Amino acid sequence: MSEYTIAVLAGDGIGPEVMAEAEKVLNAVEQRFGISIKRNAYPVGGYAIDNHGEALPATTLLGCEQSDAILFGSIGGPKWDTLPLEQRPERAALLTLRSHFDLFSNLRPAKIYPGLEALSPLRADIAASGVDVLVVRELTSGIYFGQPKGREGEGEDTVAFDTMRYTQAEIRRIAHSAFKAAQYRRKKVSSVDKANVLVCSRLWREVTEEVAQEYPDVELEHIYIDNATMQLIKDPAQFDVMLCSNLFGDIISDECAMLTGSMGLLASASMNGEGFGLYEPAGGSAPDIAGQGIANPVAQILSASMMLRFSLGQAAAADAIDAAVVQTLADGVLTGELLDTANRHKAATTAQVGDAIVQRILAAE
Ligand code: NAD
Ligand code: IPM
Ligand code: MN
Questions:
Q1: Is 362 exposed, middle or buried (0-12, 13-18, 19+ CB in 10 A)?
Q2: Is 336 annotated as a binding residue?
Q3: How is 320-341 classified by DSSP, letter by letter?
Q4: Atom from ligand 2 closest to the CA of residue 74
Q5: Which ligand is closest to the CA of 106, given by its number?
Q6: What's the CA gap between 111 and 348, in Å, rounded?
């Protein structure tokens, strides 16, 4: 029997609620595919600050190091918003994990599935033309990590600064991720930048052009970030792979999630290029709906599917999850945020969506 060990970091807000559903789904694929996925839960984020004094305890980091992959929920929330930046869950836990494991390649696939156009807030004719975008986001450099970063002075003389910084090597490796992914898709890379203003973006363009020479079968276009955000709403079908720096990819991926219907649909894989990865919903801890059992678990479940595919080599199990998710949505088992106000009373709970997905995984056996 194939056996794996994963670290489960549920975190804050809706994290534990949607993670419980992903765990049910992992139980189902264990049963159906005869594999064993040992799960070790570790504290992280605000929960870890409250209970262990820091957002990323050493035992959590060690547990991740000893695992085949990390399944991550979400972290942060109003309770920890006033902490100094370096102690906040977002930086102290999530950004540290990304950087510690060199998870530079972040894949965020957003798709409107055939028949599910009505979930999209786009105008009907635009939704019907299709959304099938893979955001490839650089995740361990750029303005998130560049030095110097800080704040100095007092009163009106206070100055704050972040540094956007990219090395050629960092751009090159994420560009390769994007072109490789495009070869398995519709063979188009739209590289998103602000080359009319930013020096980093000039280098980004140069290096992307160079890398493109190695992929003659893939078309490369450059597009400014401001134009890209509006083109995504006007004509999303023109995009296949969107190659983005760290901050631009953060913004573009939330927009892509919403084009398909909800933040709660967008899964993500953050990979080191050697098979190790952290898998998490692109959305956050959703404090506005946490604790009510109404969060959409699909992004967490699809993140588990990406983990099975990319880190555990279990493509058949991943396919089964993906198919069960699409079927569940098509059958109208939907959390409230996917429904219009007239139909909101038909909303399924987090657990009902999870159960429906499990049922469809097992029924297909
Ligand atoms: P958010 O993504 O948590 O929420 C934005 C909106 O999307 C909210 O209206 C929320 O209800 C909705 N939403 C998100 N996930 C949903 C789901 N699964 N089902 C239904 N609706 C969903 O973004 P925010 O409010 O800006 O951030 C809240 C906290 O989460 C902040 O502390 C932020 O730093 C943190 N955050 C963490 C992660 C992460 O852990 N990976 C990602 C993004 C934000
Ligand atoms: C995401 C999140 C994170 C990011 C935050 C929580 C640090 O928004 O994964 O998209 O900005 O990368
Ligand atoms: Mn984000």
A1: middle
A2: no
A3: HHHHHHHHHHHTT---GGGS-G
A4: 6
A5: 2
A6: 21
Residue 229 predicted with pLDDT over 90: yes
Confidence label for 1 from pLDDT (cuts 50, 70 and 90): confident
Q: Which residues are catalytic?
A: 144, 194, 226, 250, 254
Q: What is the DSSP string of 97-128?
A: HHHHTT--EEEEEEEPPTT-GGGS-S-HHHHH
Matching residue, tokens 């995504």: 232
Which of ligand 1's atoms lies nearest the C-alpha of 73?
A: 40
What's the count of helices (H) and strands (E) in the chain, helices before strands? Answer: 13, 12
Distance CA 303, CA 283 (A): 12
CB 110 within 8 A of CB 78: no
CA distances from 135 to 57, 107, 333 (A): 31, 6, 27
**Which of 93-120 are b and which e, b meaning 16 or more Cβ less than 10 Å from the residue's Cβ?**
bbbebbbebbbbbbbbbbbbbeebbebb
Residue nearest to atom 4 of ligand 1 (CA): 286
Verdict on whether the full-model pTM lies above 0.90: yes
Q: CB count, 10 Å around CB of 275?
A: 12
Q: What ipTM goes with this model?
A: 0.98
Domains in the chain with CATH codes = 1-109+262-365 (3.40.718.10), 121-260 (3.40.718.10)
| 98, 138, 148, 205 from 200: Cα distances, Å | 21, 13, 15, 9
Task: Assess contact for 6 and 339: CB atoms under 8 A.
Answer: no
